[in-house]
Amino acid sequence: MTKQAEGVAGRAARGRGRRPADEVRADVFRVVGEILLGEGIADLTFERVARLSGVSKTTLYKWWPSKGALALDGYFHAVEETLAFEDTGDIRADLLSQLRAFARVMTATPAGRVVTELIGQSQTDEDLAVAFRSLYSGERRRLAGERLRRAQEQGQIRDDVDVQVLVDQLWGAVYHRLLIPDEPVTDAFVTALVSNLIDGITPPSPTPPSR
Amino acid sequence: MTKQAEGVAGRAARGRGRRPADEVRADVFRVVGEILLGEGIADLTFERVARLSGVSKTTLYKWWPSKGALALDGYFHAVEETLAFEDTGDIRADLLSQLRAFARVMTATPAGRVVTELIGQSQTDEDLAVAFRSLYSGERRRLAGERLRRAQEQGQIRDDVDVQVLVDQLWGAVYHRLLIPDEPVTDAFVTALVSNLIDGITPPSPTPPSR
Lengths: 211, 211
Hints:
The structure is a homodimer.
Chain A: H1 3-15, H2 21-38, H3 46-53, H4 57-63, H5 67-79, H6 91-108, H7 111-121, H8 126-153, H9 163-179, H10 187-199
Helix pairs in contact in A: 1-3, 2-3, 2-5, 5-8, 6-7, 6-9, 6-10, 9-10
């Protein structure tokens, strides 16, 4: 967006007068999401978000005390729909389509860089680490856990499997390749993540001889 | 180690005169390993390593152009033996014992913090990212791949499984919990990582009725 367009958008937003908090937050999330997915975190500033959303910097700082909190909350909402968990009743198909969407966001938009930089910075910034868990990863874990537990109830995953471990072996495995890129995140990789867990990695037991 | 002890160790080392490069490097690795596993990366300085190993700072900088490179090379050698891959012929047992040793180093020594900080910093420091892959993660991947391929040759892992994906679903899953600590790295977690892959997560197929 050009500076001029930003100015117009900002004025239009301010022109609406006092709006319900939910509407204001939705505007902020939309603006933050557009910046993060379109440009990256370097271009995210309170100044610019205030101008584009028509929300005062004071209000922004009241709701999001740091750039990290603003980025994480905005990012969560920006990808919420793309990363939604379908339930077609087939856990293999549903995991595959969700993980493909996740891999696409991570590799084909600036989101991958945004998230890996936030994870990186959170190793030495405890406030950011807390914001990351409370505004992003904890909620993503909860949503994945819900879908996996439904599969468990439907008898597609064994009862004794801790579904939170699967979160680390699916999405965590993708993060591993994003953070330490020895190997690429490809479609074959995503497919293998799912089938290694659903099929197991050992050879099929020999068929008992028919008598 | 006290400053005084460090001085004595340094003088003793210098007293030996010109030593073979391998021996000098081994001394440096020992010193770097002791600092990283005992204290952490904040206490690692070229100054201190030079004093403790009796190797000149000029030589240190010639071999390791940055603190990151020195830390990664030293850390790789410090944990090489602890993280060695056994081959008892039973891949489940061997993965379990290696992953337990890995989890112990990561959670019970400052190494976990050292490695997560280096991964964190490498998100915005391209030189460190290259050093991380060439001096640490690439080689760890190669060693894990070797052991897993042997299991494949012995018929314990299916031929169509890409063993590099298993690296992400085992060690990568542990790194995920270390870097984004929503959930803890426990022994139950490590055990589940291995059994989810070896047994698969789906219920056993019903036994065909005997006729």
